[in-house]
Design brief:
Elements (H helix, E strand, L loop, with lengths): L1 H34 L4 E11 L5 H4 L13 H9 L2 H11 L1 H5 L17 H11 E6 L4 E8 L2 H59 L4 H27 L10 H22 L13 H36 L4 E7 L12 H29 L1
Antiparallel strand pairs: 1-3, 1-4, 2-3
Helix pairs in contact: 1-11, 3-7, 4-7, 7-10, 8-9
């Protein structure tokens, strides 16, 4: 009785294995070898190249026109390659839907149902177009599958063209931003320069003086000349004959001349004191301090304007050329033989999972049976 039971158990295992593993494998193999259409692969490899330049503001210690970003262009491109927008663009360019549905309905597993939505096409494209991104080297590799070698290469080439167009748009936006920033800096620098010039002109008009330092030098020249005249007059007075009376005309004239020169010197010196005034009644010290401040502002405004003008010219030059571009290291290839679907690999994977599922079901069955 027990022997019959064990024999029946073995027969049950064989039968279950036949129906749960062998039969599905036969069906899968038949589909793969008799219904599944051959697929051809085309590969392309590319990376984002970026031209860097140093602006004149960098040289002068200013703010660079182009700053780094936390997200690289390659990361943006990798996200774009997996997006529905790319599928829509490629479909509009080469009718991707018809290329993937060429074998429909003969091959419903690997072909696309032409009545599917754009979301279905996006999901199917992710199966047929594989993107590999190495974030260390920035290299992107793309493999596209199609039912003909020409279609596979066309899809790969179109994806590359759409990616290049996206990078060009990204580069154009960055160039526009840098040019707009440089133009804003130039406008602010010009406004500052104009204000500095207006302040200096107002100072000259209000004080009726072009350059207080030059006027000061002229005043110092007058004092030096009076000092020489005073010394000469004192020598002339000392050379008068001794014993002259105090009311002698020559002595009175010499003393008068000395007193006048000294009074004039005092008047000239008083212009440099706190109570004295230069042109317009302003104290010379305050005039010179204000003039030097305005001159320093003028000099700084001129240097800033020259730097901003050079940076703007460089930004315009950069805008006339492509700063980012997509470089293809491997052009889209044209396959000579079909390598997909990988029938033996798919059959082995299916067999593995079928055996796993069958073994789990058998264990569960015997576990339940032994409890009862």
């Amino acid at each position: 009785m027990a022997g019959n039971r064990r024999k029946g158990g073995r027969n049950g295992l064989v039968v279950s294995f036949t129906w749960a593993v062998i039969a599905p494998l036969v069906v899968i193999a038949a589909y793969l070898w008799f219904w599944a259409a051959d697929q051809y692969a085309s590969t392309v490899s590319f990376s984002v190249q970026k031209e860097e330049y140093k602006s004149s503001l960098d040289v002068l210690g200013g703010i660079p026109l182009l700053s780094g970003s936390m997200i690289s262009d390659t990361d943006i491109l990798d996200d774009f390659l997996k997006s529905q927008e790319l599928v829509e663009n490629v479909d509009a360019a080469i009718d991707l839907r018809s290329l993937y549905s060429k074998r429909w309905p003969d091959d419903p597993v690997f072909a696309f149902n032409p009545g599917g939505s754009i979301e279905d096409l996006h999901h199917h494209t992710k199966r047929m177009v594989r993107v590999s991104y190495d974030n260390h080297t920035g290299l992107i590799s793309l493999r596209s599958l199609a039912f003909t070698a020409e279609d596979a290469r066309l899809i790969a080439q179109t994806v590359f063209d759409q990616s290049s167009e996206m990078i060009n748009e990204l580069s154009a936006g960055a160039r526009a931003d840098s040019t707009r920033f440089a133009k804003g800096e130039l406008d602010r620098a010009f406004a500052r320069l104009r204000q500095a010039r207006q302040d200096l002109t107002r100072f000259r008009i209000e004080n009726q003086i072009v350059d207080p330092t030059a006027d000061l030098q002229g005043q110092m020249g007058i004092l030096n000349s009076l000092q020489e005249q005073l010394a000469s007059s004192m020598i002339e007075m000392d050379m008068l004959p001794a014993g002259l009376k105090a009311d002698d005309a020559r002595l009175l004239q010499a003393q008068r001349k000395i007193d006048v020169i000294r009074a004039r010197m005092e008047d000239e010196r008083s212009k440099f004191g706190e109570t004295g005034g230069g042109p317009g009644g302003e104290v010379y010290g305050a005039l010179i301090a204000e003039y030097e401040g305005l001159s320093a502002d003028m000099l700084f405004a001129e240097e800033t304007y020259r730097a901003a003008l050079a940076a703007y010219d460089m930004a315009q030059g950069e805008a006339r050329r492509q700063s980012r571009y997509l470089a293809a290291h491997v052009r889209p290839t044209l396959a000579e033989t079909s390598q997909f679907p990988q029938r033996w690999s798919l059959l082995a994977i299916a067999g593995f999972f079928l055996v796993i599922v069958w073994a789990m079901c058998v264990l569960i069955y015997f576990s339940i049976r032994d409890r009862h």
